[in-house]
Amino acid sequence: MAKNGEIDANGVWLNSPKGDWAKAFRFGFFHTISAINNAGFDIMSGFSLMPYYTDYFVQICFITLFIIGGLGYPVLFDLKGYFSHKIKRKKSRYHFTLFTKLSLSVYFLVFLFGLATSLGFELTSTNIESMWNKLDSSGQNYFYGNVFNRLFGIFFTSFSTRSAGFFTVHLKDFSLGSTITFMIMMFIGASPASTGGGVRTTTIGVFLMSIFNMVVDKPRVRIFKRAIKKIQLICQVKCLELPLSL
């Protein structure tokens, strides 16, 4: 890690708070608010979190904040009720709401889709300038480090790109396929009543289930054994029409 005002090994200017506790507190406070609100603002460098590319503790902290902010307040409230139920050791079974089940399922399915798809595109890319193949100035080593470094770079980006806005790998270094994948994830975004953007995970979940039911010729859309009203299906389609038209 570079000192204040210096240039790190990758040529990235880093306004590091290292050694300055007052500055570290200010930076930590600012970036915690920025991350949990999926804002993407940073005051450390002009390259987001690239200077912390191999600092996995920092990245995991950011990912945790992305998830907390992106799941939505109703989901967090439901999870609070679940853990409270467990702590009190109640014998009755706790029942999550349909909203929580759908939000959590689609949220992590979108992440897995982005991770698997972008990883596939990067591993099969023949472009020498893509993040997986790019070499440093010496031409002897990979610019983005060893295999684990690059895998974690894709892992972090798959969490962040949907709505958080932080990055450890410059987006211009990803292949075209990965870029399109990230655009799809940005379009979907986070859960309703969250700090993230997008058309929302529940909208996509209900929309895809309605298409599936049309294919298998089922009269009613059912998710987690709960029937979805027709008016709700119409609302989901309407929510997709405007952003798609733009």
From TrEMBL:
<keyword id="KW-1003">Cell membrane</keyword>
<keyword id="KW-0813">Transport</keyword>
<keyword id="KW-1133">Transmembrane helix</keyword>
<feature type="transmembrane region" description="Helical">
    <location>
        <begin position="197"/>
        <end position="216"/>
    </location>
</feature>
<dbReference type="GO" id="GO:0008324">
    <property type="term" value="F:monoatomic cation transmembrane transporter activity"/>
</dbReference>
<feature type="transmembrane region" description="Helical">
    <location>
        <begin position="98"/>
        <end position="121"/>
    </location>
</feature>
<keyword id="KW-0812">Transmembrane</keyword>
<feature type="transmembrane region" description="Helical">
    <location>
        <begin position="141"/>
        <end position="159"/>
    </location>
</feature>
<protein>
    <recommendedName>
        <fullName>Ktr system potassium uptake protein B</fullName>
    </recommendedName>
</protein>
<keyword id="KW-0472">Membrane</keyword>
<dbReference type="Pfam" id="PF02386">
    <property type="entry name" value="TrkH"/>
</dbReference>
<feature type="transmembrane region" description="Helical">
    <location>
        <begin position="56"/>
        <end position="77"/>
    </location>
</feature>
<dbReference type="GO" id="GO:0005886">
    <property type="term" value="C:plasma membrane"/>
</dbReference>
<keyword id="KW-0406">Ion transport</keyword>
<feature type="transmembrane region" description="Helical">
    <location>
        <begin position="171"/>
        <end position="191"/>
    </location>
</feature>
<dbReference type="InterPro" id="IPR003445">
    <property type="entry name" value="Cat_transpt"/>
</dbReference>
<dbReference type="GO" id="GO:0030001">
    <property type="term" value="P:metal ion transport"/>
</dbReference>
